[in-house]
Request: fold
Amino acid sequence: MLQPRTMSDSPPKALFEKIFEENNAKVYRFAFKLTNDASRAQEITQLCFVRLWENINEVKKDQDIFPLLFVYVKHLVIDESRKLYRERKALSQAAQDQPHSTGSGENVFLQKEFSSQLVKLVERMPEQRRHVYTLSRDHGYSHKQIGEELSISPATVKNHLTAALQYIRKELSHHFYVDIERRK
Reply:
């Protein structure tokens, strides 16, 4: 009796696994070289292989695949850099649109420091979480609108936002607590 073929028996999956094993470390090193950030490099590496999987039927068995992966990585880094630029620009514009505090110089300094740290933290978030956070906080999208925009469920949007806010709270409280302790 013939056994049904599973996904693990399929030629495209076997080819993908072979390519992944042979190139994963090289792709990561290249992504790290371009980003100088381990978590961003890991995310770009994963996205690169997702893109490869989506196009695996176009890959020939004995083809040198690294040039294609190289192009994927470059495009992903460029796309991510453009997103970061747009987010920074939006945050900068939002900061300029805020009414200026008439409080003490210390308050103005803390406000600027807070904004600066927030931008840095948002930049360090994984791409999907950062995108969800930006759509929610900077553009005012609802969970449903974000889900539709990114093709994810509203529950996943909520999970990303919860994780993003927890991360921001933890990092900001640590940063400002350490800074306050240094000033004493």
The radius of gyration is 21 Å. The helical segments are 11-35, 38-54, 66-97, 105-124, 127-137, 143-150, 154-183. The chain is about 80% helix and 0% strand. Residues 66-97 form the longest helix (32 residues).
